[in-house]
């Protein structure tokens, strides 16, 4: 069966739309908010060194007087080492030590959540009791730039409309939303984030 001129036009339009959607994927996964003074800075798990630096800078710049660090996923190997008496520091414990011992953040201003988490939705749920108990109204949340939209969606879904969420990426994060396909690391980040973002929008809570 021959392809009609109309079908070729439709196919071309679909290709153009698909290409436009892909080119805009970096912007779709990214949403950073304007900085405002908040009750606390919440550092999500992941690229801990860059996020640690950003949290410390925000504290020293007066954007918040408290830093909260997300808990970690504790693996089977780490549990066994601890059972055998081997001292193992988690990423969050290292992060806190760097802030207090080297970045001069007061010890009483940095708190590590003790809840084990392995995804952003669980991180949102982990801080909810503290937000409620302290009656916080505004929270700065730090994650990688390519994750800001999904993480913001997860935080707002759990904490509700009465807590303003300000999503921020570290200033050292070089992810370019408009040119994400030019570097392999950025390309991987988009194709890691995009399906998760769509799943969150569809109602996934894990």
Give the structure's gist in a few sentences.
49% of the residues lie in helices and 10% in strands. The protein is of the alpha/beta class and 206 residues long.
List keywords for this structure.
206 residues, alpha/beta, Rossmann fold, globular
Protein architecture, described:
- The protein has 206 residues and is of the alpha/beta class.
- The chain has one domain (27-201): HUPs (Rossmann fold, 3-Layer(aba) Sandwich), CATH 3.40.50.
- Helix content is 49%, strand content 10%.
- It contains eight helices and five strands; from the N terminus they run ααβαβααβαβαβα.
- Strand 1 (40-43), helix 3 and strand 2 (67-69) form a beta-alpha-beta unit.
**Sheet having the most strands:** 5 strands, parallel
- Approximately how much helix is present in the residues? 40-55%
CATH architecture: 3-Layer(aba) Sandwich
What is the mean pLDDT? 87
Low-confidence stretches: 15-20
Task: Write down the secondary-structure element order.
Answer: HHEHEHHEHEHEH
Gross geometry: globular
Terminal-residue CA separation: 47 Å
Question: Which secondary structure elements does this structure contain, and how are they paired or packed?
Answer:
Layout: H1 5-23, H2 25-28, E1 40-43, H3 48-60, E2 67-69, H4 76-83, H5 91-101, E3 110-112, H6 120-134, E4 138-142, H7 148-159, E5 164-168, H8 184-201
Parallel strand pairs: 1-2, 1-4, 2-3, 4-5
């Amino acid at each position: 069966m021959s392809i009609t001129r109309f079908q070729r036009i439709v196919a071309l339009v679909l290709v153009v739309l698909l290409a436009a959607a892909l080119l805009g994927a970096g912007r779709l996964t990214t949403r950073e908010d304007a900085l405002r003074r908040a009750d606390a800075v919440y550092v999500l798990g992941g690229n801990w060194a860059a996020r640690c630096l950003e949290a410390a800078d925000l504290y020293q710049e007066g954007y918040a007087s408290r830093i909260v660090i997300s808990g970690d996923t504790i693996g089977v190997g780490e549990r066994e080492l601890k059972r055998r008496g081997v001292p193992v520091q988690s990423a969050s414990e290292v992060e806190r030590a760097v802030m207090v011992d080297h970045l001069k953040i007061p010890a009483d201003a940095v708190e590590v959540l003790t809840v084990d988490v392995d995804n952003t939705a669980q991180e949102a749920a982990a801080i909810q009791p503290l937000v409620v108990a302290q009656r916080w109204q505004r929270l700065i949340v730090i994650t990688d730039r390519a994750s800001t939209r999904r993480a913001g969606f997860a935080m707002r879904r759990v904490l509700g409309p009465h807590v303003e969420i300000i999503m921020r990426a570290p200033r050292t994060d070089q992810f370019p939303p408009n040119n994400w396909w030019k570097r392999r690391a950025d390309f991987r980040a988009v194709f890691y984030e995009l399906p998760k973002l769509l799943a969150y929008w569809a109602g996934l809570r894990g």
